[in-house]
Amino acid sequence: MHSYHKEATVGLLVLLGVTGFVAGTVWLKGKAFGNPPMVRVAYHDVRTLKEGSPVRVSGALIGQVESITLERPGRVIVSFTYDDDLVTPTVGASAQLVGVGMLGDMVVDFDPGQGAPLGPDQVIEGTVANGLLDTGAGLAEQASTTLASLNRMLDTGLVVDLRRTLRASEQLMRYLSDRQDGPTAEVNATMRQLQATSARLDTTLIGIDAPALSARFDSTLQSTGELTTRLAAMSATIDSLLGRINRGEGSLGKLVADSSLYVELRQTLRATRALVDTLSAHPERVGITVRVF
Fold it and tell me: Of 169, 173, 171, whose CA–CA distance to 184 is shortest?
């Protein structure tokens, strides 16, 4: 009986040890006990995400990744647990993979969203944020492009062309700064001529008799005003004359307004033309009498 108790005690201790070892292993791996609520998210690439990685909401830890399953190339299903006392996933939820630290560890930034509660079989389409490694790769690509551009700029032909351009620029600057043969000399001569012209203009302006010029200008304006008045009176007279002619007043008006004169003139012209035609055809009809004294 005593031996049976010892064996039972040893067996119980071994069983407790195995149970503790398994529980500790599961705890170290981040596995949840029981049947906690879970959310499934699909990613095209999970990068360095692993089981046990934290799940955060607004930076606060609310769960962890339980499993990562490859459904097909380009689609990985990530299942994570969460504290249902803190968040309630909805159909408007989103989950983004974010890199943290220098080693590129990944965490899940979860947004419960708004709307109807998320069903147990529904899968959220997740996104992946660019991490430090992606940024470093972009910077490396830009650096490579910059180095290639610098190599092209250091081409021998380009350097020779730059040297020629610099020498030509130096010669141009020397020519521009030459006060004897350069454009500066012409500019100085032009400035001296302008100064002389300005002095002459000042002398001319001083010699002008301003009161006399003003009096002449006033007289000219007065003569222009009188001419304008006369032109206005002449225009009014012409308008009155034309009005009388249009109304048929006076001899000229009667000639213009009376159409019978036009008819009689046409008849006279026709008769004259007929007479000329007859005389041209029968010149013998013209009687010429010659008398001798």
Answer: 173
SS3 call for 163: helix
Binning pLDDT at 50, 70 and 90, where does residue 69 land?
Answer: very high
Largest Cα span, the chain:
208
- Domain ranges in the chain are 1-30, 34-132
236-260: pLDDT as tens digits:
888 887 877 777 777 666 666 666 7
pLDDT digits (tens, 9 = 90+) for 208-225: 777 777 888 888 888 888
Q: To 5 degrees, how large is the angle CA 216–CA 217–CA 222?
A: 95
The confidence band for 44, taking pLDDT boundaries of 50, 70 and 90, is: very high
Cα distance between residue 34 and residue 31, in whole Å: 10
Strand order through the sheet with 38-43: 123-125, 38-43, 75-81, 60-72, 54-57, 105-111, 94-100, 127-128
At 4, which amino acid appears? Y
CA pair distance 65, 53, nearest whole angstrom: 5
Hey, is 83 helix, strand or coil? Answer: coil
Contacts of 47 (CB under 8 A, 6+ apart): 97, 99, 104, 106, 128, 131
Sign of CA dihedral 218, 222, 225, 231: negative
Q: CA-CA distance, 261 to 38, in Å (whole number)?
A: 120
CA 283 to chain centre: 95
What b/e string do you get for 2-26 counting C-beta neighbours within 10 Å, with b at 16 or more? eeeeeeeeeeeeeeeeeeeeeeeee
